[in-house]
Amino acid sequence: MLDFLIKLQTIDRRWIYLAVGLACVVPFIVPMRLTVRPSQETIGVYKTIENLPRDKAVLIDSGWDAGSLGENMGQAEVIVEHLFRRRVPFVVINIGGSPQGPQFMNAVIDKIHKRYPDRKYGIDWVNLGYNQVGGWVTMTLAAKDLHKAFPRDYKGTKVNELPLMRKTRNIDDISLICCINYSPSEEWIGFIHGVYGTPIAFACAGIQSTSEYRYIPSKQLVGLLVSARGSAEYDVLLHPNKSEDRTSKGTELIVPLTYGHLVIIFGVVIGNIGYLAERRRKRLRRWE
Amino acid sequence: MGIGGEPTTLWEIWLAALITLAIYTFLYSDNKLYRALLNTSIGLSVGYWFVVGWKQVLGPKWWDLAWGGFKPKIPHNAVWVTKPIMWIGNLFSYIGDHPWAFTYWLFLGLLGTLWYFQLSRKYMWLSRIVIGMTIGMGAAATFKGAFLLNAPQIEDSFRPLLATTPDSLWSNGAPISVGAPINWLQSINNIIFVGTVVCVMVYFFFSFSHDRKPFGGMAKIGRWMLMITFGAFFGNTIMTRMAIFLERVQFLVRDWAKNAVPNTPGIYYAYGFAILFVLIAIYYILARRHPTAPTSPDAMNKEG
User: Fold this and answer.
1) How is residue B59 annotated by DSSP?
2) pLDDT tens string for chain A (288 positions)?
3) A264·B238 Cβ contact <8 A
4) Are strands A90-95 and A174-180 parallel, antiparallel or unpaired?
5) Mean pLDDT of B217-229
6) Arch. (CATH architecture) of A40-247
7) How is the beta sheet containing A223-226 ordered, strand by strand?
8) pLDDT tens per residue, range A227-237
9) Residue spans per domain, chain B
10) What phi, psi does B242 have (nearest 5°)?
11) Cβ of B236 and A108 within 8 Å?
């Protein structure tokens, strides 16, 4: 028995991959639903957007691409849907993220726009594209003069020709900065929230979230969307009664994600059982 | 369905699916097919970065502004040999019209050029001027950023150990005063928080021995708290990796297997299976090496 338990810590990793693969594939083939309870950090972002004024724009710094599509796409979907629904205008920028960011964000906006066809580009939203000179330099410049930091939108149209941009010139015209990225830039907190006090929300990859949580109790962040979980929770807040309307990437991934996690937890537990069994054997040998 | 719900063509779905599967062959063992695709991916992304960098940054923000402004002044019917001369003429006429702008440009240009003196041993000292300026600016910005980022964190660490119910003014509960009821849940929360902060700080305080009575225990608790944090990091890392993997699984199950295959005419099935067969064959040829069996922790320790 002890030999069998000791062997548990040397299971070929490919069996674990297979188990994780099955746990992830089956929920896609056999549709299942799990109850998702929104966390405080997700509710923080939702409540902030729910109470935003309609005469000021939300600045979305979106620099994610295919590499973090599983996590950031759902976050972008729910935030854009909420802003479209409330008709709060938003300005999409990409400071130092992936150069593919604007295209991916456009794809998300196009998808959500089909549900809100009366929203118009240039009035309800604009996409100012990518600025390679990232970090605090562009952030500070954008806060002082957004037109100078982004003279044209991603299509090449001068920002003065866009109605939304004519009334959105600097940080005073921004009600919230929402940074959707694999690893959102903390310089938004230091250089913009610290100086101008503009509320900031982050939507980040799970791996980054552990170091971002600390900004919530200190009120430097109004909330945080963590990985696919964050978007699934936000989807519940957006559609509390109609589960069939929850179509974000996060909602699609949350069930297989849960089963995948269960397999990992199971793996950790049996690995530890093997470790404890080996310790016990060593102790028994010492007694002998 | 591609990103944003745009339908992709059949061959795109097949290509994406086969590349995805080929990349995941690494799960079985390292192989040349995986490495070839990895290098292709790196090459593609470098090329993409270059094109986007030119099209979205260098082009509109440098080239078009610096040189494009003179273009309209050159007549279309001018002989091509005379075009560069006219262009240079326009440049000098611009400098004559905007002497201060040119002086500004010249000053910054010369300053930037000083970087290149790093290539000369004799004149390397010139590059130190701009290096010094860059370090000074960077240090100032870092100090400002770090202060604005961390000062509210320090402020938030001062929490009352016996606190009242949190409100809009006191988000962690106010210190107890006469008549105000204690919120025990908030108080316990604050005690854990402040205790963790102090213990972790003691753990990283190396100026005195941790063997002394109160500090040894505190450092030990600090270490445990750090280990719990690292566990949280690890758990969240798994969530990230899993979400990335699931996005690919979703593509394979929903877009490739469900949509592409059943709606495909028979001839495409034949092509698809042929490609899959060739891919598997290539994989087995390239990855004949028997994968190394995982070693036990003891064996790894012996190997060092």
Assistant:
1) I
2) 888 888 888 888 878 888 888 888 888 888 888 899 999 999 999 999 999 999 999 999 999 988 899 999 999 999 999 999 999 999 999 998 888 888 899 999 999 999 999 999 999 999 998 887 778 889 999 999 999 999 889 888 999 999 999 999 999 999 999 999 999 999 999 999 999 999 999 999 999 999 999 999 999 999 999 999 999 999 999 999 888 889 899 999 999 999 999 999 999 999 999 999 999 888 888 887
3) yes
4) unpaired
5) 93
6) 3-Layer(aba) Sandwich (3.40)
7) A125-131, A90-95, A57-62, A174-180, A200-204, A223-226
8) 999 999 999 99
9) 78-158
10) -65, -40
11) no
Domain locations in chain A as residue ranges: 2-32+254-287, 40-247
Contact of A247 with A234, CB cutoff 8 Å: no
Query: How high does pLDDT run on average in chain B?
Result: 81
Residue B113, SS3 per DSSP: helix
Using CA atoms, how far apart are residues B291 and A85, in angstroms rounded to an integer? 53
Residue type, B128: R
> Residues near A101 by Cβ (< 8 Å), separated by ≥ 6?
A62, A63, A64, A65, A94, A130
In terms of Cα–Cα distance, which of B41, B66, B54 is closest to A130? B54
Residue length, chain A? 288
DSSP B175: B
Q: Is B292 helix (H, G, I), strand (E, B) or coil?
A: coil
Residues in chain B: 304
- The residue of chain A nearest to residue B228, with distances taken between CA atoms, is A210
Inform me whether the C-beta atom of residue A173 falls under 8 Å from chain B C-beta atoms. Answer: no
Taking a C-beta distance cutoff of 8 angstroms, is the pair A101, A234 a contact? no
Euclidean distance between CA atoms A222 and A216, whole angstroms? 6
| SS3 of A113-170 | HCCCCCCCECCCEEEEEEECCCCHHHHHHHHHCHHHHCCECCCCCEHHHCHHHHCCCC
Measure CA A100 to chain center: 17
* Residue A271 sits at the chain B interface (C-beta within 8 Å): no
ipTM of the complex: 0.86
- Yes or no: say if A183 and A204 are a contact pair by the CB < 8 Å rule: yes
- From the list B28, B60, B149, the residue facing A14 with the nearest CB is B28
Contacts of B210 (CB under 8 A, 6+ apart): B202, B203, B216, B219
Interface of A with B in 103-142 (CB under 8 A): 104, 106-108, 110-111, 114, 129-133, 136
Q: Which of B23, B242, B259, B301 to mutate to test the interface with A (most CBs of A within 10 A)?
A: B242
> How far is the CA of A58 from the CAs of A42, A86, A104, A173, A239, in angstroms?
17, 12, 18, 9, 22
In B, minimum Cα distance to A150 occurs at B61
Side-chain half-sphere CA neighbours of A171 within 13 A: 19
Is residue A100 within 8 A of residue B52, CB to CB? The reply is yes
Whether the CB of A154 is below 8 Å from some CB of chain B: the reply is yes
| Residues of chain A neighbouring B146 (CB-CB closer than 8 A) | 190
Q: Which residues of A touch B294 (CB under 8 A)?
A: 10, 12-13
pTM assigned to the model: 0.82
